[in-house]
């Protein structure tokens, strides 16, 4: 299904496919809007969904943009954060981005793992300010 997706400073012409693995509603906070093919990976109403299993793709490096809002804090009891990040790395194209919104301790753990696998990371305050419990992490998989 084609849908509108809001992006920040990322070139919209580079985005063709998006995975939205979020447990919260997306917020409009970007500079550009682009039509993309979007696949929703999380259904909050289905509690038996296990996102730490391998993601079904025809081949690796399929997606340009992955969005994960509260995914890690919700699933950290059932899934290994490293396993989820490695699966994201497998399905993300070189030059692709990952946007993560989660709690501060989870963001810090993800940032360590992301740097270890060679992603470039940028941490931001959420719209709630610098002392909020949520932070944003923007990761880029470089060539």
TrEMBL record:
GO cellular component entries: endosome; membrane; trans-Golgi network
Signal peptide interval: none
GO BP terms in the entry: methylation
Pfam families: Methyltransf_29 (PF03141)
Membrane topology recorded in Swiss-Prot or TrEMBL: Single-pass membrane protein; Single-pass type II membrane protein
Localization (cell): Endomembrane system; Membrane
Name this protein carries in UniProt: Methyltransferase
Source organism of this protein record: Escallonia herrerae
Homology family: Belongs to the methyltransferase superfamily.
Keyword line: Glycoprotein, Methyltransferase, Signal-anchor, Transferase, Transmembrane
Main EC class the enzyme belongs to: transferase
One GO MF term attached to the UniProt entry: methyltransferase activity
Enzyme Commission number, as recorded: 2.1.1.-
């Amino acid at each position: 299904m084609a849908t509108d997706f809001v992006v920040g400073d990322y070139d919209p012409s580079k985005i063709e496919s998006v995975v939205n693995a979020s447990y919260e509603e997306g917020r409009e906070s970007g500079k550009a809007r682009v039509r993309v093919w979007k696949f929703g990976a999380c259904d909050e109403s289905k509690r038996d969904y296990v996102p730490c299993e391998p993601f079904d793709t025809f081949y690796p490096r399929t997606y340009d943009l992955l969005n994960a809002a509260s995914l890690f804090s919700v699933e950290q009891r059932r899934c290994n954060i490293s396993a989820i990040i490695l699966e994201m790395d497998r399905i993300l194209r070189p030059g692709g981005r990952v946007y993560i919104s989660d709690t501060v301790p989870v963001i810090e753990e993800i940032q360590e793992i992301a740097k270890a696998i060679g992603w470039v990371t940028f941490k931001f305050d959420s719209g709630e300010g610098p002392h909020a419990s949520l932070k944003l992490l923007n990761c880029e998989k470089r060539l």
